Amino acid sequence: MTDAPSPSDPQAPGTAPAAGTGAPRRGLFSRRRALGVAGAGVAGTAVGLAGGIGVARASTVETPAPSGPKVYDFYGEHQAGITTPAQDRLHFAAFDVTTTDRAELVSLLQDWTEAAARMTAGQGAGEYGPTSGPYDAPPDDTGEAIGLPASGLTLTFGFGPSLFRESGRDRFGLAARQPAALKRLPLFPGDNLDEARSDGDLCVQACADDPQVAVHAIRNLSRIAFGRAALRWSQLGFGRTSSTSTSQATARNLFGFKDGTMNLKAEDPAGVGAHVWVPGGADPRAGWLTGGSYLVTRRISMTIETWDRQPLSEQERVVGRTKAEGAPLSGGGEFSQPDFTMAGRGDQPMIATDAHVRLAHPDNNKGVQLLRRGYNFVDGSTGLGRLDAGLFFMAYVTDPRTHYIPMQTKLSKSDGLQEYLQHTGSALFAVPPGAKPGEHIGQALFA
Ligand SMILES: C=CC1=C(C)c2cc3[nH]c(cc4nc(cc5[nH]c(cc1n2)c(C)c5CCC(=O)O)C(CCC(=O)O)=C4C)c(C)c3C=C
Ligand SMILES: [Fe+2]
């Protein structure tokens, strides 16, 4: 977590990182090599069976492992994909559970865990891979990631409130273990939510440095879920809008501003401990969530065409920071603390009373901090000559009742940025702690 190397850093193959720290391994696995090995093993079987019906076919894919694939351990104390240095790409998916059988739900989580451990290691989703399984059965991997390295893939799973209780009904005998904080987020002023882009029983956040790897992961998890859970909505994202490690440069959002400067970073264990992980004893009903977190997702449409017609002075006033460097308008550099008392022109402060960074700053929110992990999105155009663009906001917090809802309430009412925003999707998930090898994700919830 403290010294995540850059993609070009060499690291000895087989050097395992500390569990759940977000430190990557390199060179351990490659989807190419894994396919080659699987193919060789299966080829022997095929020869032995002399081409009988249903025999496995040898893989023809055998290329050398690419050097230095970035691999994050799936297993660990916390799930990967939270404090892990934010990758470049996102595919986020929310699912509705379609089975009514608790045992089938558990088997889905087991199957997802196994597939996730494989895919994050740069292997195929199933034990055979895309081209080496029984010839008369659908492949256990869809194949579009053949030849691609792990690309820093992380898969992070969460449980929505509706998994525990739907219209008052205890669907899977889990209602007594629903955390008090895990409720549907309230409607905030100005929300224009699309139900088809909100909520969900289960979620999977796939982050990777290659969009095809992230999409492949969600596609395969969705395929595996068939008959037990169905995709409810999904969101693609690019150009991470938050750095989660000091090893990363601050990226920009679609308003052109640096986003993530004051984010909680992995290198601040005290801050992450206080504001991200759920502590033991936080909720007597939900001991299973200790070491986990809550994930807020908000699809926020940005009217970038209107924004682009605003003078630079107005853009900076509304954010409260300079566009070039991302420095507070009260002076200093990008990482200087803002001085909200500094007087500006007339009787106005240098950082406006409705500036986004003033309203979101911990000093004005009872010391609260969020671990933001958002991504830009452009989902084509609206049909009105505008880009359907925005920010898919994600934040991991220790408790949404203290760490998100009050801040969002304030921003929705008073933030100068709000004029250019519309929240179109909303969801809250409980993100269980990491699994140990042999366990499935969220196992303690079902124990
Ligand atoms: C409720 C939480 C937040 C929402 C929703 C949100 C949306 C949002 N933010 C930007 C752009 C920027 N945000 C910045 C800082 C910032 N934002 C939040 C919270 C929410 N933002 C916090 C807690 C902070 C940090 C405040 C601080 O400690 O100073 C910045 C400045 C750079 C930075 O520190 O990251 C920008 C720029 C957009 C465009 C947006 C919705 C689309
Ligand atoms: Fe913000």
TrEMBL record:
Domain Dyp-type peroxidase C-terminal: 250-435
Reactions the enzyme catalyzes: heme b + 2 H(+) = protoporphyrin IX + Fe(2+)
Any one GO CC term of the record: cell envelope
NCBIfam families, per database record: Dyp_perox_fam, tat_substr_1
Cofactor annotation comment: Binds 1 heme b (iron(II)-protoporphyrin IX) group non-covalently per subunit.
GO biological process, one term: iron import into cell
PANTHER family: DEFERROCHELATASE, DEFERROCHELATASE/PEROXIDASE
SUPFAM superfamilies attached to this UniProt entry: Dimeric alpha+beta barrel
Principal localisation: other
Presence of keyword Disulfide bond: no
EC number: 1.11.1.-
Low complexity bias: start-end ranges: 12-27
Residue ranges annotated for the Dyp-type peroxidase N-terminal domain, each copy included: 79-238
UniProt-recorded name of the protein: Deferrochelatase
Cofactor(s) needed for function: heme b
Heme among keywords: yes
Domain of life: Bacteria
Transmembrane segments: 34-56
Function: Involved in the recovery of exogenous heme iron. Extracts iron from heme while preserving the protoporphyrin ring intact.
InterPro entries: Dimeric_a/b-barrel (IPR011008), Dyp_perox_C (IPR048328), Dyp_perox_N (IPR048327), Dyp_peroxidase (IPR006314), EfeB/EfeN (IPR006313), TAT_signal (IPR006311)
Pfam families, sorted: Dyp_perox_C, Dyp_perox_N
Compartmental location: Cell envelope
